[in-house]
Amino acid sequence: MTTPSLPMTVSMPGMPERVTIYEVGPRDGLQNEKTVVPVATKAEFVRRLLAAGLDTVELTSFVPQKWVPQLGDAEELLDLLGESGTGQRRPVLVPNERGLDRALEKGVSAIAIFGSATESFAQANLNRSVAESVEMFAPVVKRALDAGTWVRAYVSMCFGDPWEGPVPVTQVVDVCSRLMDLGCDQLSIGDTIGVGTAGHVLRLLDALEEAGIGTDQVGVHFHDTYGQALTNTLTALQRGVSVVDASTGGLGGCPYARSATGNLATEDLVWALDGLGIEHGADLQALVETSTWMAEQLGRPAPSRVVRALAGG
Amino acid sequence: MTTPSLPMTVSMPGMPERVTIYEVGPRDGLQNEKTVVPVATKAEFVRRLLAAGLDTVELTSFVPQKWVPQLGDAEELLDLLGESGTGQRRPVLVPNERGLDRALEKGVSAIAIFGSATESFAQANLNRSVAESVEMFAPVVKRALDAGTWVRAYVSMCFGDPWEGPVPVTQVVDVCSRLMDLGCDQLSIGDTIGVGTAGHVLRLLDALEEAGIGTDQVGVHFHDTYGQALTNTLTALQRGVSVVDASTGGLGGCPYARSATGNLATEDLVWALDGLGIEHGADLQALVETSTWMAEQLGRPAPSRVVRALAGG
Predict the structure, then answer these.
(1) So which residues of B are the catalytic ones?
(2) Which domain holds residue A273?
(3) Is the confidence at residue A260, as pLDDT, over 80?
(4) Could you identify which of A296, B21, B121, B180 might form a hypothetical disulfide with B116, taking C-beta atoms 3.0 to 4.6 angstroms apart as the criterion?
């Protein structure tokens, strides 16, 4: 029996020619892992991801260490990365103006802010209402744009919320519009607890477009808690989206969701894109080797099915 | 925090109104588990699946016990099931005429045969060539049809083969045509090692239709080895297929694939169908409870993401 071959490439109508993989493993992935990874290991992780050809890698978060001990070493990480950690395709998360100050001091030129579509999660995660959080983000975005920095707005809980249940599409569009009105360059719609299905994805993308936020401004961020992440992603691609958030190995997940399964695994996405003949620039085998190595650092197997299949043999 | 609510229902253009879930857990699932489950437990498993509202349940295989010790109790199982184990929506697998004789003696009125799209797997699984296996199946199908029995033809390795790599679509269509020409009522196209992607699924369905095998005669059977099972399934549904093979809890898998992940989990499929507002008749919570119970019998957690999310809390 030979090694399973990569998927046969057969294109499909309506798909984009190229997809930008927005890798969230070092930030969203490691933030939600129990283990606090040493900064040298994080730098090695990022270097391996870049060597594997990933387009955009979100590096870390300039969040207070007491909030997220897993990412308390943002400055040290950027120092270790040097040149490879700079540029508009190396965003960092900033929670507030203090975080922006820290990021700008380190020469960062792309940031992401992290809003919520629901009041419950805004209170839980940001300790303020949705309106107050938009108010908090306004000067962050303005100052970042003035400094020539690229800005992404994450919106979490766009499909369901663990306290509120299903989230109305109009409510999501309202929050997205308020954040994009600040001047953000890109929106990332997040199904933080993974409950959404394909028709719901289309309805939200339609509603965003009606509100003036076209698919060229939107990235999608799906979690695999209920097994829907890849299906929802490909549905969004057929609807015109071409930026996809994914986490190498499937690292991370939402601490408020009830399952260990987290982000869409980059390798499972790459398998699908390779099969569909969609360009993305990443090398599957290098990603699998990186996930296998990272799983050793974390002391647990990677959730990605592709990694388990290809690394297990 | 509340219990995660079921997905919000939002329909999607081009989907069927109703899907027939063809449950393969008791046969394909248990056949590929290491543990040999007692026959009383199997009967209880089937009863629970039927009570959960599943449409069609493949019960067992009339295969020699020395080939598949896990299913060496087909007669006893049907005895225990009584009335609930009969009818055209309770198929059993038969490998040859001897298996058919045993099935007919027990009053079975639906059977499935199991062919291969590749010579390598035909030799490995059936110990004969593809042509010889079609020859072997011919009298099985004829005698079954003469007895008023419904007949399904599985074709395995329709997308990739562990020895031969990618399998040409023309080769798959040729084998499918030869089996359907015997008079079978339904075809099940299997991605036994889980390598296929969405465009490949569409190309095969197009090619089958050109050869006179319409989507109304086709069921799809995907494995989640590389994370593509649900995506490929929904792609087939949009192309007109309305019969989907799935295994409650994600039980089973192909012993020739390199990963532990096996069949599409019925619960993950049901989550997607519920989200899309597609009728199927099954109750998600009852399926999750059944998988949780079955996982205890097998001494290992269910691979289904929905089960892990809903049963873990």
Answers:
(1) 254
(2) 20-311
(3) no
(4) B121
Residues of A in contact with B305 (CB under 8 A): 224-227, 259, 261
Instruction: Examine residue A166 and state whether it is found in any structural domain, yes or no.
Output: yes
Domain count, chain B: 1
Query: pLDDT tens digits, residue range A109-134?
Result: 999 999 999 999 999 999 999 999 99
- The position carrying tokens 């000067």 is A139
Assigned domain for B283 exists: yes
Residues 188-217 of A with CB under 8 A from B: 193-200, 202-203
Whether residue B54 contacts residue B23, with contact meaning beta carbons closer than 8 Å, is answered with: yes
A135-154 confidence digits (pLDDT tens): 999 999 999 999 999 999 99
Q: Residue A55 sits in a domain of what CATH number? A: 3.20.20.70
A256 touches B at CB < 8 Å:
yes
Asked whether this complex has an ipTM greater than 0.85, the answer is yes
Estimate to the nearest angstrom the gap between the alpha carbon of B48 and the chain centroid.
18
